Structure formats: structure tokens, C-alpha cells
Amino acid sequence: MSETTRTRRSMLVGLGAAAAATAVAAGTASAQTGGTAFRPTRHPEDSWLDAAPGAKHRVVIDAPTPHGAGEAVLFANNLYDQTKNAYKGTEKDIAILIVLRHFGTPFGFNDAIWAKYGKAMATMIQFTDPKTKQTPTTNLFNSSAYGMDLPTLGNTLDQVQKLGTRYAICDAATHFFAMQLAASGGNADAIYKELVANIIPGSRMVSAGVVGVTRAQEYGYSLIYSV
């Protein structure tokens, strides 16, 4: 056998061994990952997110600021309008969830809470009535009288709720606001229970707003970030 032939055969054997090693490594990696796509775990606490009978589309709007909470109402109304006008559908074709979290959380409480704690809450989140320039004592996002002066542009929480919008309210932030409100005199636990008892129609508490936003995406909701 010539030297050239022996060299060529050695190269072929070496390449074959390398290919075999690569195949083994690939097989090992596949076995380690299971060869399947990631699937999030389902929890009973999140099963309500699937309660959207007949909906062809799912949207979650993340609202962590006062301005974002107002625009979330506007965006929800726009989604209903375009579902009807551009796609010839109905409100039932789209499931909309607005997550009121962080400094958007107080807009998940009704006028009774705003009448009692509105000045303190509005001071904390740096929100004022655009007409009076004072801290409000009602949930302004339920008023259609402000028009362009508010990011809702005249749409209201109640209006889009009646069209099917649901609200998720951050429990962690609710505890935070209860503690802050109690700092000037009061019982944080009692205030917390009062806040929870006065959430707006069509809403529910979630352990944390960020959990609600991320879980909704795992249930097939497209995300709109409203800030």
C-alpha cells in the first residue's frame, strides 16, 4: 500500500469517527431536552383565563401607571371598534383583559374608595384632576366628561367592561397601598379588606400584576404594554 493510500484511508477513518461523535452528542442533547417544545405548567389559580367562550382573539393590556391605565381603556375600546368595523365581527370575538398593577392599581377601585382615600392615593401616584388641578375624590376613568383631557379620551372602565373587558388587580400593590394609607392612622389589614371589597365590576384580584400579565400570555393572550 502506498503512503498516499494509507494517508487517505486514515483521513476517512478519522472523519467517520468525528461524524459518529457528533451524532452521539446531538442524540445526547436531544435526550436531555426531551426533544419537545417548552410548555408552561397549568395551575388551577389561572384557569379563569381560559373562560373566554367563543373568543377568536385574546389580548392582555398591561397597565402599570395612571396614564397607562387610562390608555388601556382607550385601547380596549379601539379593539372592539376595529373588530366590528374592520373585521365585521362582534365584541364576543375578542377577549380583553386589562391588568391594573403598580401605580395603575388604584383605578381598580370604585368611587367609594376614591371618596375616602382618593386624595392620599392620588398623591402617592402623582395623579391630579386635569380640570381642577386637585387630587380627585372619584375614579376619573369612569367619567366620560373629560374627553381629551384624560388618556381614556372619553371612554370609561364601565363602558368597556359591559362590552366584555375583564380586569385583574394586583394584590401585592393593594397590600402596599393599604400599608401606606394606614401610616397616617388606621389598620392596614382592615384597609386592605376594604379595598378588595370595593374593586370595580368585572374585576378580580391576582397575586401580583406581573403574574397576571405573564400567565395571560401563556394562555394565548397577545400583549399590549400601556404606559
Report on the architecture of this protein.
- The longest helix has 31 residues, at 3-33.
- The termini are far apart.
- The protein has two domains: 1-39; 44-225, Hypothetical Protein Ychn, Chain: A (3-Layer(aba) Sandwich).
- A five-stranded parallel sheet has the order 4-3-2-1-5, with helices on both faces.
- With 227 residues, the chain is of the alpha/beta class.
- Strand 1 (57-63), helix 2 (66-85) and strand 2 form a beta-alpha-beta unit.
- The chain has helices spanning 3-33, 66-85, 111-125, 157-162, 171-182, 188-196, 209-218, and strands at residues 57-63, 94-100, 166-170, 203-206, 222-225.
CATH class of the largest domain: Alpha Beta
Task: Kindly report the average pLDDT value.
Answer: 89
Q: Tell me the domain tally.
A: 2
Counting H and I runs of at least 4 residues, what is the number of helices? 7
Instruction: Report the strand count.
Output: 5
The percentage helix is 40-55%
The name of the CATH architecture of the largest domain is: 3-Layer(aba) Sandwich
Uncertain spans, ≥5 residues at pLDDT below 50? Answer: 3-32
User: What is the H/E order?
Assistant: HEHEHHEHHEHE
**Overall SS class:** alpha/beta
CATH superfamily of the largest domain: DsrEFH-like
Q: What best-fitting shape do the alpha-carbon axes yield?
A: globular
| Order of the strands making up the biggest sheet | 4-3-2-1-5
- Proportion of residues in β-strands: 5-15%
Radius of gyration: 27 Å
CATH topology assignment of the largest domain: Hypothetical Protein Ychn, Chain: A
Distance between the termini: 77 Å
